[in-house]
Amino acid sequence: MQTKRPQRLSSRAMAYVLAGGRGSRLKELTDRRAKPAVYFGGKSRIIDFALSNALNSGIRKMAVATQYKAHSLIRHLNRGWSFFRSERNEFLDILPASQQLDEENWYRGTADAVAQNIHIIDSYHVDYLIVLAGDHIYKMDYEIMLQQHVDSGADVTIGCLTVPREEASAFGVMDVDADGRIISFLEKPADPPGMPDDPNSTLASMGIYVFDWKFLRELLLKDSSDPNSSHDFGNDLIPDIVKNGKAVAHRFSDSCVRSSTEAPAYWRDVGTIDAFWKANIDLTDFSPELDLYDNSWPIWTYGEITPPAKFIHDDEDRRGHAVSSMVSGGCIISGSEVRNSLLFTGVKANSYSSLKSVVALPYVNIGRHAELSNVVIDRGVEIPEGLVVGEDPDEDAKWFRVSEGGVTLITQSMIDRLAASK
């Protein structure tokens, strides 16, 4: 008699991505879009990393909960992630905050964003739910984390970064025993606990949780009826499980995916202008810590149909060229000098302009003789001829957003305000 081959755990799991946050520290970059919908890496959006991890891990059932200014995100998901086929028992559901429980409450917290959709999750008959944040850059095999969850018999398994103790005060951290069981969860402690095998390091929460769905379902129903709860995983549900159940830490280093050229355990929160600029510019390095060229773990996204990038003019003072840069499809470098920069789809740099350490989002047009350095330019901005940014921070700050690290953010409304002043 033929025995039935066991299913991979990922085939019995659903990835539930929380993608409703604004990301206010990104300032004007999130005025029109949620943080997970912000562009990254030349052609992707931030949310593509969590979704690609799930897809590459073998998960074919996904849901994305949206709330803040979700149109850009929903449009991207419809265009770039519509290849799932229900007849193959696979899907990606978009779950906007739609007052599922009553006519008064939108999503009240991260746990409530799951609780309001219990009946939808029930309909897909999954055994495990992986709750993910949709706003971090990393590559991770969730199957490995699922296997640890099942083997340990945990009520919740929490993905954790290993960070130096002196840096851990900015995170929610885990105090664990020698077996990896979480003894206590501490939110941004002044004196973070060390790890049993490394007293100089601490485990910090990644906001990734694995649950048995039946267990989480009951917990969510209980939490929903608690008037004193903020209905949040980090504030309410996780501390309760640590105290009354079994919470186990999963180290990111055990499941992170990296090619031979990548640094170990690459993870970035690109939640500030400085962090966003640096993570993008780092991709132009000779051997970047994040390898986007690894075809064994691709970052799936919506790929626009564009012509190849073009470089034109070859005069001494008018030569279209790019050095140590990433230039996407549809870009035209027309007699412009581009160095250590990342240009998204359809950027046009006109003659005699100079770009140094510039992150230009899609369809930016840079006028002649413009000189830009250490700049992030929002989508579709028209940079006027002769604009100089990056040489005089005080002057730049009069018109643009200058970060603590000296990076200048330029949006079209800022350019319009500058033009109106002349």
Describe this structure in words.
Strands 1, 4, 5, 6, 8, 9, 10, 11 and 12 form a nine-stranded mixed beta sheet that branches. Strands 17, 18, 20, 21, 23, 25, 27, 28 and 29 form a nine-stranded mixed beta sheet that branches. The longest helix is centred in the middle third of the chain and has 12 residues, at 213-224. Helix content is 22%, strand content 27%. It is built from ten helices and 29 strands. It has helices at 47-56, 71-80, 110-115, 118-122, 142-152, 213-224, 233-244, 273-282, 393-399, 412-420; strands at residues 13-18, 39-40, 44-45, 61-66, 91-96, 128-133, 137-138, 156-164, 172-176, 182-187, 201-212, 247-251, 267-268, 310-312, 314-315, 318-319, 321-323, 326-327, 332-334, 337-339, 342-343, 348-349, 354-360, 365-366, 371-377, 382-383, 388-389, 401-402, 408-410. The protein has two domains: 9-271, Spore Coat Polysaccharide Biosynthesis Protein SpsA, Chain A (Alpha-Beta Complex), CATH 3.90.550; 310-421, Hexapeptide repeat proteins (UDP N-Acetylglucosamine Acyltransferase, domain 1), CATH 2.160.10.10. It catalyses: alpha-D-glucose 1-phosphate + ATP + H(+) = ADP-alpha-D-glucose + diphosphate. Alpha-D-glucose 1-phosphate binds at residues 107, 172, 187-188, 205. This is Glucose-1-phosphate adenylyltransferase.
